[in-house]
Specification:
By secondary structure, the chain is mainly β. It contains no helices and 32 strands. It has a seven-stranded antiparallel sheet with strand order 7-6-5-11-3-22-14, with no helix packed on it. A six-stranded antiparallel sheet has the order 1-30-28-32-26-25, with no helix packed on it. A six-stranded antiparallel sheet has the order 10-9-8-4-12-13, with no helix packed on it. It starts with a strand and ends with a strand.
């Protein structure tokens, strides 16, 4: 619903936050959301898979507009794989690649929906937003390893997933809000707290086999290594301050004179093997002679979540103004550039702080933007106007299309929680920001 609209030739209109009758808005609380893009292969993986043998509960939230089939969480289509699937027919609980039934209503409106997948005995139920959607029988073990895609073979999600929790026979296994800055490669499980830096800030060595650094030759006599660090009692290690896949590690098993085969890989999460009493780290880097790295330890072996293929800027800080998490209340998009969290559909180009629309009906979308019932002031700048239709989609609020170039400002009460900019003609261009200021809390 459009409250009012006007074109502003000067500075961007400003709004202020008030409640009904001048009642102050509750204190601001903030968190991060990451907007996954299927076209870019973005997803999350658990540092190790979860196997659920008895009764369980799996909770979380998701938001999507993508109509192509996609998995919210997955353990794969193979043996014991448990999956939550979303498509135009609704949501379904899959097991070992078998779809079973689906919910009666698709959840493809861009709003944030909550889910609960629960097993009691052999009966599995799916609740969406508190409503029972389906029931099926699953008797065997259930494995979960990925969020935002199928564990094996694509089916990526476009949108957001958050607040992932798992209970196994009443015992919490995972509690991950998925609310970390985009610079964090690992999303923390509150059940796996990490302590202080085991290396106490000193500089670690690197692998040096003669004049050529390598990430394989740990047994070379010319290898320079770190000091052995005690890890008795720890179950999980987390490497920090690394910027290369050539981070390596080595554990002692019986004492510090015998060590298992070294390991290397992309993951900063390391499981401490049974019997290991000491640990040392390596970092093979072609240009950084003595890189400083850090390693944190935890007495818990419960998994954390890793970001995969996610640029820093797909993660944005959002603000809780009322009862929802879905308000950004200062700046929604920032400049249109290659690193914005907009999801592009059709022939669109985002570059050089400008959005250029292609032929036909094309648009860009950003999830989890508005709280329903609230009133917002939105502004966007049209740099090249070809016409006839360009601006904020009518699915958000009616009457928000531009009729000429310049800065356009509207006060709206959104019909949905996502933001979408639409054009029906090639050559329309938009620059600057889409500013969002909350005027009234419902």
């Amino acid at each position: 619903m459009l409250i009012k609209g006007h074109r502003v030739g000067g500075a961007k209109a400003r709004g202020h936050i008030v409640g009904f009758g001048g009642i102050p808005v509750p204190p601001v609380v903030q968190r991060y959301f990451s907007q996954l893009n299927a076209a870019a292969g973005m997803y999350y993986s658990l540092s190790k898979a979860i196997t659920l043998n008895g009764d369980f509960k799996i909770r979380g939230k998701f938001a999507t507009l993508r109509t192509t089939g996609q998995f919210i969480f997955s353990g794969g289509a193979g043996a014991n794989g448990l999956e939550l699937y979303s498509t135009t027919n609704g949501c379904g609980v899959w097991y070992e690649g078998s779809s079973g039934s689906v919910s009666s209503d698709p959840m493809l409106d861009g709003k944030q929906h909550s889910y609960l997948v629960e097993r009691v005995g052999t009966t599995v139920t799916l609740h969406i937003d508190g409503n029972l959607e389906l029931t099926r029988t699953i008797a065997g073990p259930c494995i979960i390893s990925h969020l935002g895609r199928r564990a094996t073979g694509g089916f990526y999600l476009t949108g957001t997933v958050s607040d992932f929790e798992v209970e196994d026979a009443g015992v919490p296994v995972v509690d991950i809000a998925i609310s970390e800055p985009g610079t964090e490669a690992v999303l923390h499980n509150t059940l796996t707290p990490f302590g202080t830096d085991l290396f106490s800030g000193y500089v670690n060595g690197y692998i040096d086999a003669g004049t050529t650094r390598t990430d394989t030759n740990l047994n070379s006599p010319t290898t320079r290594s770190t000091t052995w660090i005690p890890v008795a009692g720890l179950k999980t290690l987390l490497a920090t301050r690394i910027n290369s896949s050539r981070f390596m590690y080595q554990f002692s098993l019986d004492d510090v004179t015998t060590a298992e085969v070294s390991k290397a890989g992309l993951s900063p999460v390391v499981e401490v093997p049974a019997g290991a009493t000491h640990f040392r780290a390596y970092y093979a880097h072609s240009s950084d002679v003595n890189p400083s790295i850090g390693v944190l330890g935890s007495v818990s072996d419960k998994p954390v979540l890793r970001r995969i293929n996610q640029p820093v800027t797909v993660t944005k800080l959002f603000t809780k103004i009322d009862i929802g998490w879905l308000s950004a209340n200062t700046v929604l998009s920032g400049a249109f550039d290659d690193a914005t969290p907009w999801i592009e559909t059709g022939d669109t180009t985002i570059a050089g702080s400008e959005l250029t629309f292609g032929s036909g009906t094309t648009y860009v979308t950003q999830f989890n933007v508005f709280d329903l019932g609230n009133i917002y002031r939105v502004s966007y700048n049209i740099t090249d106007f070809i016409g006839p239709t360009v601006g904020l989609s009518s699915s958000i609020a009616s009457g928000c299309y531009a009729s000429e170039a310049g800065l356009h400002t509207f006060d709206i009460q959104p019909l949905v929680t996502y933001a979408r900019m639409v054009s029906t003609t090639s050559g329309n261009k938009m620059s600057g920001i889409l500013a969002q200021q909350l005027l009234k809390v419902a």
